[in-house]
Amino acid sequence: MAGNKIHSAKKRRFINNTIVHVILGILAVIWVFPIVWVILTSFRAEKGSYVSTFFPQSFTLDNYAKLFTDTTILNFPQMFMNTLFIAICSCILATFYVLAVSYCLSRLRFKMRKPYMNMAMILGLFPGFMSMVAVYFILKALGMTEGNLIKLALILVYSGGAALSFQIAKGFFDTIPIAVDEAAILDGCTRWQIFTKVTLPLSKPIVIYTVLTSFMSPWLDFIFAKVICRANADQYTIAIGLWRMLEKEYIDSWYTSFAAGAVLISVPIAALFLYMQRYYVDGLSGAVKG
Amino acid sequence: MRRRSVSVLLAGVMTLGLEAAGLTGCGSAGEGKESIRLMVWSPQNDQSKDNGEWLQTMCEAFADEHPEWDITFVYGIADEASAAGTVSQDAEASADVFMYANDTLTTMTDANALAKFGGKYREQIESMNSEAVLDSLTMDGELYGVPFTTNTWFMYYDKSVYTEEDVKSLDTMLEKGVVSFPFVNSWYLPAFYIGNGCTLFGDGTDESAGVDFGGQKAVDVTDYLIDLESNPNFRIDDLGSGIAGLRDGSINAMFSGSWDANSVKEALGDNMGVAALPTFTLNGEEKQMMSYAGSKAIGVNPNTDNMVAAVELAVFLGSPEAQRAHYEMCGTIPCCTELTEDPEIGADPVVMAQNETFLNTSILQPFVSKMNNCWTPVENMGKGIRNGSITHDNAADQTEQMNEAMNSDGI
Questions:
Q1: What's the total number of domains in chain B?
Q2: Which class in CATH covers the domain with range A65-289?
Q3: Per-domain residue ranges for chain A?
Q4: Which InterPro entries match (chain A) (predicted)?
Q5: CA of B208: how far to CAs of A68, B136, B195, B371, B409, in Å?
């Protein structure tokens, strides 16, 4: 009797697991489908934007080669380096802003703290590109819409608003016991030393998260780059370059290279994530030991 | 000398630009050579090394012709279709000379971003071009640019399937082979409606006349399109399926413009045929398909500091010599009468088809502001027929709705 029960419970679990896994499998296929398709397209030898088969008939590396050799119409390597430079600079700046602001709001008490947080909340409700034309004219008044200063302009645009998105990092800092700070003060630490020597080492996951998000937004942004770069082709970022490849004059000969470009832009993000994800492990474990 | 050139300008150019030109004229008078800076925007294609840097070559030739100026050229990238957006965003900080598509004319004039051509310059432009091309750049009697190419679509076909006689009628073509048409693209689909007498803004310039895509004549076309869509030899060209079909042989004719010429040549080789638009048979009568046609032109920014030089450069870039170089280096189809009649260039089938379409089987694409309301309803008509929601039963009703939507300002 008892053996039967165990048997049927096992059987039921097996059936449940099978159903769950089949559903998960189907969802995984659906989710991965577009990515697989882009990767397949980037290796496709047949030209053009439309094909009647899902799998390419023949494969080639020419699409990647074209991005780096055929630079007279669309200079992909230059756009790639532009974007990388802008993204790295604004990533460093934005990460610093976010973490510093979050730390202040979490640990310090000052008169404007509450009003600042309310203001940030309300400003955060509006989409950033609402102000793009105003931002453009401000940058123009500062003389930053021509030549290499465009890069500086874009870095400022991407990092300038960072201090408004402190909520997640502040929430994380709030969970670190104040007692840790107090212990550091007793040992003679200044606020800056507490921030760099105590809080940051304890907050690796949120630091990583901030670095990743502040790298990705300039890396993928299209709208501000478009408004600010205008006709300065030597300052274009990848997003504008990829968009241009889909214009009617270029789409037929550039479509497969567009897919190759799409694969390539995911490389730095993936590399950054792979390198940093090992710090995602429990960040607080160090504090308890001491 | 400078005084005189300024006074010639007085005849034509806008006041704003004039002030600027006058100011520079005074500022640097007295020196032997005036140094000026001209910003020029064109599509990337015109500046690519593969195509011999047409724009740079032309600008240097222009500088050689004008030793009185010491010109520094600054080049930027803006293709004709999107130049209007970029220039009107901030006309003051835009190029002095740029290229634009004529359907964006009102966008630019509304933003005070386009100078009028007058006096001897206008005469010079008028002497080089046909009436039809000039009309595409004229608004309220004022000329706004130097045309350098026409812009329309026509037909590519496979010569091994069709004879030159076959391609005159869409119905014959559908019997003998597979035809693909951008059915869900509202730049193409109106060809059938216009062919059966539907009109846009009177002759295309009278905004108050509105759109007439209603009545029995339009319903007949909708019925025809429903049948066409279900024809087994008809394929909808969407997202590049037409050119892909030409490549693998599953499609024998498609409709597109000069930008696809190289791809079609590659796909069909010696069998590449190009022709103006065919006729279609509606209720037993032959009707001519009519495409939208426009032009691309070189415009001058009224905010330029060097109005005379900018206008001179624009005229130079649109001159027959520059157009010939443009054709030879970048494949841009010329539009000035001297070159379209040139035996060598005129014999190019693509040039021939484009010019024939422009002159005979097209209407001038209206550039009045209300034209902006006309794109989505037509596209929805094509999509509705494709997905089967528009049938013979509700064709009259749906056509009327399309007409209403085209005439309304609502979204």
A1: 2
A2: mainly alpha
A3: 2-63, 65-289
A4: BP-dep_ABC_trans_perm (IPR050901), MetI-like (IPR000515), MetI-like_sf (IPR035906)
A5: 52, 19, 22, 12, 13
